[in-house]
Design a protein that fits this description.
6-stranded antiparallel β-sheet, alpha+beta
């Protein structure tokens, strides 16, 4: 299982990468494997302020729909445009081209409460 050491993680299986005050957020390799084939990504929170742990959208797989929870507080800036035509990119490249949203970070301090790659690996038994 792929768990990049450079990212931060949540117990809800989202990952976050920071570049200054902009965060890129997606779901983990573990999450996409558990969900199965992703057929639709629904994000209707662009330009909205989202609190840490709030739902910012959903991913729909063949068998289920799963909420996406924000790892941090901030404003959703954009949705990955590739996912409109190719939602399966989340399955094939969850940490790269399969990112889901970019967000302007409201509180950098919240990042300290996220899981390291090692802690996330322990959580999922990797």
């Amino acid at each position: 299982m792929n768990i990049p050491a450079t990212l931060h993680y949540t117990k809800d299986h989202e990952w976050i990468s920071l570049d200054g005050d902009t965060a890129t957020i997606g779901i983990t390799d573990h999450a996409q494997r558990e969900l199965g084939d992703i057929v639709y990504v629904d994000i209707d929170t662009v330009d909205k302020d989202i609190a840490q742990h709030d739902v910012f959208g959903t991913v729909e797989a063949v068998k289920t729909v799963s909420d996406l929870f924000s790892p941090i507080s901030g404003t959703v800036l954009e949705v990955n445009p590739k996912l409109a035509d190719a939602p399966e990119t989340v399955n094939s490249d969850p940490y790269g081209d399969g990112w889901i949203i970019k967000m302007k970070v409201a509180n950098q301090g919240e990042v300290a409460g996220l899981l390291s790659a090692e802690a996330y690996g322990e959580l999922v038994g990797a």
